[in-house]
Amino acid sequence: MTQMICIDIYPSLSAYDVVRIIQIALVKNILSVFLRSLSVPSVFHKITTFLPFDKRSLFTTQNFMQYVESVTDLIGNTPLIKLNRVIGETKGLVLAKLESQNPGGSVKDRIGIRMLEAAEREGKIRPGGLIVEPTSGNTGIGICLATIRKGYRCLFVMTDKASVERVRYLKALGADILIVSSAAKPSSPEYYYNTAKRLASEIPNAIMFDQYDNPANPDAHYYGTAPEMWEQTDGKITHFICGLGTGGTVTGNARYLREKNSEIKVITADPVGSSLKTYKDTGRLVEALPYLIEGVGQERIPGNLQFKYVDEVVNVSDEEAFTMARRLAREEGIFCGGSSGMNVVVAAQKAKELKEGDVMVVIICDTGERYLTKHHSDEWLQEKGFLDTDKITLQVILEMKAHANGEASPIIAASPEMTVRDSLILMNKKGFSQLPVMDEEKSVGSLRDNRLMARVLEDRDLLEKPVSEVMEKGFPVVSHNTDVSDATQLLTDARAILVEDYGIVTGIVTRHDLVRVL
User: Fold this and answer.
1) Across the chain, what does the average pLDDT equal?
2) What's the pTM?
3) One of 28, 55, 82, 108 is an active-site residue; which one?
């Protein structure tokens, strides 16, 4: 006979407490659990989403709408998605854990609420208190989401390496931001961690959670992320890949997974320039070199980073990470940051070694919306020397011109009916040495100021003649998808190229424009 139990859920009973009760019930073969919620439907949401998919149908509800109490109730239970094109040939299965699906858009949402609740339980924070935290942005967002309903204030210390999107996001959530130099060494009082620690000690009723050494950081993954992965893979996970930063993600997940299966391989990614790989391999802490990937790598060893759980650390360059992040967007539909690209670079390398039946899970740390002005920007990549010129199209060049000018400029052209005098005035006003001649958005000819001036000097009556009588052959018109190598060939003969987008001329590219890019 099917057994049934009834649970009254009160606000004082957490979702995780109820999950424990339910798990015990399942172990005792109680096949159906009836949940009677008293004004706390969000708890039921968290309970059902926390459970394995094949168990959720066993749970029924009575007379309440389905909604959550706050945005923090949506943290966790992020999906797994198979990676296909970016991985290449492999005998195993490679899955991405989409932490970008958390409400704040990153894996750090998990630790924000966990650290706040721990501080409250331990009496370390009082009503109206100020949270001061060093962050590259994502942890700050997670903390903000956790504090919004509780009335705490936030001050985040960030380096000038942080993307403008992260800074603006935090300000939009109501946080105060202090930007310090990323060039400061860990021994300097100006180092962002040391600055936050000093401010937390000097400002009354302030606290620094210290994500680097706070045990609530790895606990968020030990009790959340890792059990999810174990259940989602039906206990078949054999390889786990993540980046190294505060150490919370690798330590919490690896500790849980190793308790389940001591044979699981834990492989981590570290930016070229970070000190962590060298420390793991040699035991020496060397001085870090500059790198551009945000939110990962270190020049100190955080208390939460326990290398005993790490089998291997793989270095990944900025260019490799950013290229992979862009590939993930274009080939898998996964819009993510550079640290996620870094993780997947390692996953793609290690996937070649997988055997039949192996299951690899790699962390997608955050959303790419935080990096629209960085590695998801062709202009930024070109500025940093990472843009592959062989793959640049004329559309990219037009976007770079618009970025340099502050806006996209309309096509400046002469019409066939315009007088030569007016065309010369137009070129002089705009500082152009040449112009296309356009008739109803179609290219019909071109003008060069030096040739026009030479002819006018011989015959001043030409000034009142229409452009159609003196114009030269029109510039080549090519698709916006034309690559730079083909455009270079055209510009050996032509002085400019008109770029067409779905039958409409949208821009002009000159030899000078190409030289600036190449």
Assistant:
1) 87
2) 0.74
3) 108
